[in-house]
Batch of 3 targets.
Target 1
Amino acid sequence: MKLTNVLSKSTRKTPSSAAENRSQFSKSNKVKWLSFPYILWMAGFIIIPLIMIVFYGFTKKEGGFSLENIALISDPVNLKALILSLELSIVSTVICLVLAYPLAIILNKSQMKSNSFIVLIIILPMWMNFLLRTIAWQNLLEKSGVINSILKFMHLPTINIINTPAAIILGMVYNFLPFMVLPIYNVLIKIDKDVVNAARDLGANGAQTFMKIIFPLSLPGVISGITMVFVPSLTTFVISTILGGSKIVLIGNVIEQQFKLGSWNTGSGLSLVLMIFILLSMAVLSKYEKESEGKSIW
């Protein structure tokens, strides 16, 4: 009798469970259809251009497979531009990290009720066009610009950093600093305060707490910020064109000039070399992040 009741109950539940399965299946199909526009966008603007770059990079203008476009990076002009790009991007990334980490800590310790307001303050300059922001810095740094006009009015020595690497670094730091602040800030706000308080209770001072608790736990945000600043700094050509003039040529400027001249093969080959540097840096940072996650904070 009991077995009959169990069978009858399971039989009664079967239609409802089948209906739930059908509803879940229909929901999963809807999710797949909703992701279809993104797949089209990714194919049209990421995959297809990447395939074209690889194709042109490994072929001659007349046709046929060739490594000549890749080997052009050894040209003294191209090699000098690549080395200078690496140097400026590394310096800009370090400056952004030095400025962003204390700022993220200050924002994390602020007593403001709404974190969204803090984020708004950081990203507010990014609402303006990237090109307009860079041109604004050009007007500020020119010999007869706003800064020098104020310095002359106050009878102080003027500055002359326009069309120099310093101006390019300044433009990079200004434009890419939010990309360093936000990842670090997002990680810091998720750190459990009880862990920090426990370290203090166990006798750790401020420096020990930072080095053994806060900084190791914030490493994912630091590495993410380094990646988000280093990659655009290495590939930029707009900032160096506006703030560096024709005196300073980065690898991004060389690639841009090649495409403007219609030499897609050369430009694609140099782009592939630059892509290799970017992938290597991301691989090293990713490996370091995984190793740091596996270690004990003590």
Target 2
Amino acid sequence: MSATQVIANSADAASKAKQETLLTPRFYTTDFAAMDRLDVSPLRAEWDAMLAEYEGDNNHDHFQRTPDFATEVAERFSQVSPELHQEFIDFLVSSLTSEFSGCILYNEIQKNVQNPDIKALMRYMARDESRHASFINQSLKDFGMGLDLGDLKRTKAYTYFKPKYIFYATYLSEKIGYARYITIFRELERHPEKRFHPIFRWFERWCNDEFRHGESFALIMRTQPGLLRGGNLLWIRFFLLAVYATMYVRDHSRPMLKAAMGLDATAYDYTVFRITNEITQQVFPISLDIDNPAMRAGMDRLFRLQEAADRAKARGGVVGAVQRGACAVAAAVTFGRMYLLPVKRHALPAQVRMAPAW
């Protein structure tokens, strides 16, 4: 694990969850009046079918721990190394913060809009994210590191995003979340001996929730064609690259976590990127060329610069601060060069919705 904060108790976990860095999940707020004005009538049939799925709530009984959950933790997780233990706790805190971020955002939107379509959607998605966050928190509580979600909601900083940025970022977050979880689930399905914690057995239907959430934002964006053309393509390119780069750096900062599952961090990340590229063609007319050697070199350079920044932070003092500043500038230049690389273009399909078939 890179030079990151050690999480030894619930106070450390709370401190980690409240961090505001380029790699940590954020809490968002938005323009509720603009959200209230959304009109999904151009895709009414697909929208109503989607809301019917939410109402059916086929995962209502999924997030309940089985009687052998604690036994499996005691028997299998007790054997992991201290380093893997720390990376897994960091993963749980980051995942919980991300899920709870969605819960807060969706709940705030549904409380502040009157539009019945948007209100219903946000209520359902907040319900799902609340279940996810609570389920992860229960596993943190097993280690005496549970988070006070009410306190986190009150004390963590909020970032304002325009609705269109919420659509781009949240759509990508939900879809890449699906790709991440399903890739892990499939690997551990093939190699159950590597399932060192029982929470991974819940990943399949869990990530199907994430997939459906992404479908919701895909429908919203397809009802507003202006979001998917012209100058907004620059924003789509930015969010694609930012989400992929953040994932790459974060995953390579937890090398033992992927290795314990039998996954190579780089191969895993590009599998996730490939799946996400395939999915996002439903709504984005461009996708990143993840096989471009310059793109791959840039991803690796961003990780190396993050490692150097971590070392500079640990060093401290004036020299450490100067080194961190130099790393930040170099990372910005690297990101800019990656941003300017050619992208792939494609036509949008007539049918918006997709099935989670990976």
Target 3
Amino acid sequence: MQYIDPHIHMVSRTTDDYQRMAQAGCVAVTEPAFWAGFDRSSPQGFYDYFRQLTEFEPRRAASYGIRHFTWLCINPKEADDPAFAREVIELIPSFLDRPNVLGIGEIGLNKNTKNELIILEEQIALASKYNQLILVHTPHLEDKLKGTRLIMDAIKRNGNIDPGRVLIDHVEEHTVQEVLDRGYWAGMTLYPDSKCTPQRAADIIEMYGSERIWINSAGDWGHSDPLAVPKARLEMTRRGHNRATIEKISFENPRTFLSQCDKFRI
């Protein structure tokens, strides 16, 4: 079965990962802009990163038959300095017409600080101005529920954003229902040690259904698994879920959400 990994940081993965993903059935990935493992020292560093995401990485993926799409932003971990963040935000509009750019992401909160919230609101406004899809990063562990609510409230305050064009990622058992109830899409991130395991993701599907939910690996330079999506599909098969449900959360739902951008074609 074909699948889409709608959140994975391929610039931090080896070419062998592309080969293994293609062999497992991956036909497309989307890569949100995020932290590089260190704080960049200048906006020029982000400019070069955006070029990598829009120029080099699509070619590397294509050599394995995988379509590569991306999202652009300044990530929440580097957004606590508003002056610096605004210099980065000024770079983004010039990249929005690139053929693989789907929208603004992954914006959100890291430690739920006042400055992070200010920059979040400014990037929501950027998405609204240019009619872009939004992909949201929610905080970790004990900050997740509070941060998720702060993010959704900020989007609502903007007044021009359709929740159906926003994906709230890294949902867990204590946040997924509220995200869905407010009309947003929900992403479950499959990490070996944190966020959701394939087993927990299957539990969530069994508890909350398969509408407006997808699964992703968010594979990056840390402890993560670029084959997490096919492994979660195997777990659901083991539990007796039918093929239609498995395809829905790993292919049809991502395709439906992402196809709201005319550039997404597979």
